[in-house]
Design a protein that fits this description.
Structural class: mainly alpha
Order of helices and strands: HHHH
Largest sheet: none
Number of domains: 1
Strand content: under 5%
Number of helices: 4
Distance between the termini: 64 Å
Number of strands: 0
Shape: elongated
């Protein structure tokens, strides 16, 4: 019997998510199904994996629903954070007075 331990937000914030990890997972999906080159298809695969893992857990439906809601909120937070980083304005050059000898 499998048990799912609901991870508190403090544990979720300690994930080691990197561009390399995401790229490797995406490439793995593409090897399985070439249509996963489309980020939407790849995202569907990843959501289906979450559904499979959660579906295998021996916990009450109400707890599964709560976990799904928390995962959706977490997913939205990550997506918003990444989008904000991608579309953030480039840093503005600082204006000041330069004098010889300044680094």
């Amino acid at each position: 019997m499998r048990r799912l331990i609901q991870l508190p937000n403090t544990v979720m914030s300690q994930l080691k998510l990197s561009t390399q990890l995401v790229s490797q997972m995406h490439q793995f999906l593409i090897q399985h199904d070439a249509s996963a080159q489309d980020p939407g298809v790849a995202s569907q695969y990843l959501c289906a994996v979450v559904g499979c893992l959660l579906g295998e857990q021996d916990v009450p439906e109400s707890q599964k629903e709560e976990i799904l809601e928390n995962l959706f909120a977490f997913t939205r937070h990550v997506a918003d954070d990444i989008a904000q980083q991608m579309y953030a304005a480039p840093p503005q050059a600082e204006v000041g007075i330069w004098k010889p000898g300044m680094g």
